[in-house]
Structure formats: C-alpha cells, structure tokens
Amino acid sequence: MRAVLIIAAFLLLFTSSIGAKAAEADPYQERMKLYKKVETITQIPWYYLAAVDQYERNVRLSRRDLPKPESLIGIYFRPEQWAGLTNPNPSEENPAIIQFFNGVGVDGDGDGNASLKNDEDVLYSFAHYLLSYGVDEDNIKIGLWDYYHRDRTVGSIVSYAKIYRHFGRLNLDSNVFPVPLRSNHSYRSTWGDARGWGGRRIHEGTDIFAGYGVPVRATGYGIVEMKGWNKFGGWRIGIRDINNTYHYFAHLSGFAKDLQVGQIVKPGMVIGGVGSSGYGPPGTSGKFPPHLHYGMYKDNGITEWSFDPYPYLAKWKRIERMNVRKK
Ligand SMILES: [Zn+2]
C-alpha cells in the first residue's frame, strides 16, 4: 500500500512539473479572452467557464487514462462524445452531421468546423451544453450534475467559480508556508509513518511543531470547505484550492475570528493557531506537544487520496524566503 502511495506521489510531482512548464507561456490572459468571448455569446458567467476548464485540466494532469492537456483550454471530450456515439466517423468536424448524431461538438469560432483541436470550439461546446439548462447558478449546477454525476466534482467547480469571481483573475497559484517563517518551528518528512497524531491508517501529513498559538495561515488561494471538531484531528479546517487539492489543518488551538465555511482565503491569511487539540471529546487538548498537522489530498475526478506535503512545504518556504529578501 505504502509503495503504491509513494509511486502516486511521485507521479503527481512529475505531472505537476509538466504543468508548470506548460504555464511558462503565461496563458492566463489568452484564456480569459476566450472565457469573456464565450460569456458574451452565451451569457454564462466567465468564472463558471474558467471553473469547469480548470477542474478538467486538473483531472487530466492527475489521471493516466486521459490525454494530458496540450492547449489553452483543458476541457476534455472523448472523440465519440464530440462526434456523436453512433457517428461512424469519430473525427467528424461537420457541425450539421455532429448535430444529427447528437454529438456535443459545436462550431464556436464560426469557421464552419466543429473541431476538437480548436480551443474556442471546445469551450463553446461546453457552454452550449450548459446553456440548455440556463445561465443562473441553480441551473448551471443541475447541468453540471447531469454531466458529471458526482457531488465532489460539482462542489469543486462551484467553489472554483466563487474563487475566480472573487478575485477577478485566473492567476491564483502562489503559496506560502503554513506558519510564519520567523516563528520557531520544526518539521520533517513523516508522511506515511505508521504512527502519528491526527492521521488515518497511516500518517497522512506533515507535523509542524511550533509554540502554542503561533498563527496558522492559509497556504494558497481557496475556499474554506470544512471547520469543526474531530476526535483525532481536534479543531480543524479544510480548504479546497483551484488545483483539485484539499488542504487539511488539524490540532488547532482555535479558529481565526469570523472564519466561516464558504469563506474565500488567500495565501498568508491567518485561519487559526497552532495547538494540541484532539484525541477526545470537543475541547480535549494537551495529549501531545503542540503542532500543526498539515495534510494534502488530491482529487482526480474519481477518488481523493493523500499525498506527501513535505516537498511542497519545503518549496513554499524556499520561495517565500526568496520573496522576503527581494523586498
Ligand atoms: Zn500529524
């Protein structure tokens, strides 16, 4: 089991490095142009289009049974879904024939073809599908549910739309270390250890030891998905980011004032304090030294699994330190 998880973590690192390379061309502006253009035509808000696109891109980056995203738009249609299941030609690009076979492919850029290789056609085709439900949040949600048949997926896409709408931009990729760099803290790689505090079957996270009450910060852009007590994790917070990653903060001394489920956070925002809560009924504390248990979980559209936060923590710390020096 452990070997499988280690391989999965390795693959994840590998695929995310490919993603980083693809992003070097700074595609955010080009993507935004396409979202806004399709919004103008369909009245579907750009942030829903951005959310679906981002979700699908994430899924493709974390799955081996799907082709990696190669162009600006990450939405994936199977050829037979595009051309129509009963269409004898799965690479059909004639919009009228595709329509006849009930395929999803539509001509978005007006060049006469509905092409899977054309970003605008692909984005417009998804918008065209949603448009058959409506352009308000409730109807978009129904459309998403009929398309994906999965609560986690619909929840993530709706959350991403809220995040994009809130910030009004697509570039939301920066991260920080979960406790202030200047605080006294220590951590080492313990992911996968048989014993730990706040883990499940194995230790699903990294323990960052620090003084009681040291501020705990959101590590990236995201939305608070969970806040509350759990027998093992104590007071804890779960934050979902736009990369299909769930960040889990446990054993907190308490929560930041006014922090709510559904609240949008950005890197560095204080969400709670380091504590030693857990291992008993609500309020139990002090059964182990104060530390932050930090876990990361990846959703690939089918299942969600834990991976080792340690390399990310080390990277974020390094980058944050560099940025502090620059200032
Ligand atoms: Zn832990």
From TrEMBL:
Signal peptide start and end residues: 1-22
Boundaries of every M23ase beta-sheet core domain copy: 202-300
Gene3D superfamilies according to UniProt: Glucose Permease (Domain IIA)
UniProt keyword Cell inner membrane present: no
Keyword annotations of the record: Signal
Domain of life: Bacteria
GO terms of molecular function: metalloendopeptidase activity
Keyword Signal attached: yes
Entries under PANTHER family matching the protein: L-ALA--D-GLU ENDOPEPTIDASE, PEPTIDASE-RELATED
UniProt name for this protein: M23 family metallopeptidase
Organism of derivation: Neobacillus rhizophilus
